[in-house]
Amino acid sequence: MSINNIFPKNFWWGAATSGPQSEGDFNKKNKSVFDYWYEVEPEAFFDNVGPKVASNFYNSYKEDIAMISEIGLNSLRTSIQWTRLIKDFETAEVDEDGVKFYNNVIDEIIKKGMIPIINLHHFDLPVELYEKYGGWESKHVVDLFVKFAKVAFDLYSDRVKYWTTFNEPIVVVEGQYLYEFHYPKVVDGKKAMQVLYNLNLASAKAIKAFRDGGYNKDDGKIGIILNLTPAYPRDKNNEEDLKASKIADDFFNNSFLDPSVKGEFPKNLVKLLEEEKVIWESTEEELEIIKNNTIDFLGVNYYQPRRVKAKEYEFDYSRGWMPDKYFDNYEMPGRRMNPYRGWEIYPEAIYDIAINVRDNYNNIPWYISENGMGVEGEEKYINSEGYIEDDYRIEFIKEHLVNLHKAIEEGANCFGYHMWTPIDCWSWSNAYKNRYGFIAVDLNTQKKTIKKSGKWIKEVSKNNGF
Ligand code: BGP
């Protein structure tokens, strides 16, 4: 077999999941906003399935990690649930069962020869902190997050060398404060911008705590996971379209990428928010913290591009100011879609992201921390041997990897590729509608079976390419 795409030495072949999407709420003493949302509005979740059982990782982590290592992965990301590790959020007093559980998970990952990457926040704010303080609207919550982060570093950084502060923080801004797809479904542009700022501050403060505490001494590194959705203009020769795409990029990508890598918010964004009188409250001291505590490495989640055009109609202020004042979404004719998720498939964007990071973000070390394809009704692809033949997923991965490989050959500093997700897991309000895993879960029995893509990735990992 000839291998056309060889990846750099020690490349991470892995996959990502999160605490709230895999563990289930077994023995958890506190509730996240998702646990709570399911309690009060179960019909908001596909087939009324909530996060209670998820993929049962709390109970089956040993078997699950064994399966994940069986498909040849050398690295695995999950997250620590704030609501599992911490009993009292103000004092950061731990819950002993949570401490033990994450100890076991981390030890097991390492025992199986994989690198653990541990994330601290995957949309799962404790609901108590929303009720008391308005969640991420509050700087007190920022400080409570830092306390939680310190506890996690203290407990696990002897074994965990790769930490990330947040997964897709812009989704918190979009889902909770602009576009109503996550509880509490507030629509408030000004609050949204304060939350955006506070999340950046929380990340920087956690990074500071990591370095001040010396958790980086023994090769420990800390980063952030951002979902980058490059904004492509309808017509790149049309100035208005181009302007619209630049503003969309500033809002949805650079608003976290710039502070995380360069320590500063994009100047044009700040100017625009000042003019609109929706700029966040900040202090000199906080901005210094953001400036001085940038990331060691970047995780990029890439699923879909964003296509925009100049505004066609005057902006409707009925719900107050919104970023959408400056652009309209553009449905490009002929675009390739994943119909189950409603996301465009455009593998070339991985190359564009890589070149952007190379040229405009100091070529910082980074990896693809999520990429994947959610498909509904995969049981129809089960073959006579009893496993899912997901050739569409293999094709999807190959196309993305070819683009990544090309960028690496041109100097992109990418050290890994992680799929969303190792084992089919619970996906927020889509619950178990679309499946993403290398390994399937039968929800009735919790039986797990390796898909064809799982067998395929094992070869890719073994050969360090394909
Ligand atoms: C990313 C999230 C994951 C995961 C994935 C799939 O944005 O980080 O948590 O859910 O998307 O998307 P979805 O679950 O919405 O189909």
From TrEMBL:
GO terms for molecular function: hydrolase activity. InterPro entries: GH, Glyco_hydro_1. Keywords: Hydrolase. It holds the Pfam family Glyco_hydro_1. Transmembrane segments: none annotated. Belongs to the glycosyl hydrolase 1 family. This is Glycoside hydrolase family 1 protein.
